[in-house]
Amino acid sequence: MAPAGSNFPGVNYNDKKINEGKGELMKMKNFPSFINGDSEKKQVQDYLKAISNRNNKVLKPQFHAMISTKFQEHSKEELTKIAENFMDEMGYRKQPFIVVNHNDTENNHVHIVTTRVDKQTGKKISDNYEKLKAQKALSDTLEKLYGLKSEEKLNRLLNYKISSINQLETLLDRNGYKMGKNPNDEKYLTLLKNGVIQQTLKGNQLVFDNKNDKNRTKQLRAILWKYKNIYSNKVFKVEDFRKQEGMLPEEKMREKDKLTPKIEFESELQKKLRDVFGIDIVFHHKDEYQPFGYTLIDHKTGTVYKGSELMKMSELFEFTSEKIGKKLFESLQDYNVRDSDSKMLLMDFLKVRHPENEIKEFMLFGNKKLKNKEIYNAIRNDVREYLKAQNNKDINVIKLEDGKYYVIHSRLHYIGEVEALIGEKQYQKLLDPQIQVTSKTEYKTGNELNKAVNELFFELMKSSGSAKDPAEQERKKRRKRR
After folding, report:
1. Among 92, 129, 256, 423, which is disulfide-ready with 467 (CB 3.0 to 4.6 Å)?
2. Whole-number Å distance between alpha carbons of 185 and 201
3. Rg of the chain (C-alpha set)
4. pLDDT score of 397
5. Greatest CA span in the chain, whole angstroms?
């Protein structure tokens, strides 16, 4: 984040999040013992100011960074550990800093605040090429903690069978790498990730192989023919405005005439081929126009194909004029859409929550991925708290025509039956015909459902105490039988 002045507004910002219940102090490192988690924010600010005042040449001493994971892929504890190692890599190992977790967005993320003035020497910690330095520091941290070695991944990709330089560029781009000519010597190619050079290759090192395995080619054609009739092959446009949204105000003003979204084309068929067979289909297009061709990447055999060699694009896909924002699209993909009921339930919810987006059914892909124990427990806790206070906009309780109650957690991307969250015994009380509730149809036109069901659940929770998960009870029974 942009450097800030000597008052350390980042401390105030994060303290406000904590007071609002949207943040949690995870770590204070390298502060004296009299400054701890119980200290007032002014004490933290004054200590950082005192260090910064050792160098009056540094007018904006605040270092404020944010590390975010995709949705809930890393817990707050994992992100805190990542943040601590990241600060080591950035040269802030001995600096006093705070790490605060925020829970007010779809993505788990932590904020880090410290001073750029070295606590021991009084000199400014170098901020040259800081954005690139931060990307490398994060990459090194992830490799250290999780063994995610970018170099090994890149070497595997470079061993794929390709028939042209364009295929290599498509393969690399699809996996987060960029390829360009070396400005000092055009015979060499530079391979970058997040702006950091990963490797330099000499052009004559590349090997092009135009011969494909006939048996595998036959298999791929059979897979494409079969699954295009099972899953939706309707293709829609996905527009990514996040680069522009992340710009600083002065950057937006400077680039206002050049702001165009990054565009991709997606379909459920593509997702299923990726997930089940390791087959990745990449469309080629110019600007916002419809694709003119596609490339098929077969990760199972490490081979890249020209799509038309396998099946004509017009035979495999049906192109539509529909479009959706990338941020919303990725959120929808993370929901556990397990069956037609949950899909239609989510569709109705989206019409209310996102009326500005005409989301079509073929944009919602089936997803049977289970939420991990930590997220599931967080959902249960949020539902229980909601039933007591009724003030969590992330929770939505809905009754279907068949009488079943469902919960949609919009921040944690969960759709599930209420019975699994509050227990079978209490759920049976919901089925009492004397209890009046609002139907799914009425939900579409307002918030009456939430009001009616919340009142009902509130009474149930007061009378029952903490509900038990029937799935957990069943597991305990099985253990006893053993």
Report:
1. 423
2. 11
3. 26
4. 82
5. 81
